[in-house]
Specification:
2 domains; single chain; 23% helix; alpha+beta; 5-stranded antiparallel beta sheet; SH3 type barrels
Length: 142
Amino acid sequence: MNVENEVKKVVESHGAKLYDTEIANEQGHTVYRVYIVKEGGVDLDLCADISRDLSPMLDVYPPVSGQYYLEVSSPGVERTLKKPEHFKNSVGENVYLKLSSGDKVKGKLAGFENGEVIIKTEHGEKRYPLTSIRKARTYYEW
């Protein structure tokens, strides 16, 4: 059984979409994070409802071995971009890329096509293959 697919079904049953999952180690504790998005926004009640529905399923099919904490939340305004759909859904937003070469790029996400991220900067548009991107996230100018 694929745990992420089952998590996705539970999230979708609440009218939300699964953005991503991650396993983190914080202060000696393992945390299984489920990031969700929903048209109109994510609120605390939605996170609590999804968490309550996920808990029994994850007790039977744990996402990690050993003890862990479940956390359900929105990915936030400044969020990590990993999957092609993350880039497609973030077109028009400001992004920061860290490339495999060590270079850093900031600009507006103009598109994602054929496995390439298209960034518009003051110097024009440039394409970066997804495979050349080590880290990517949106950022908000305060």
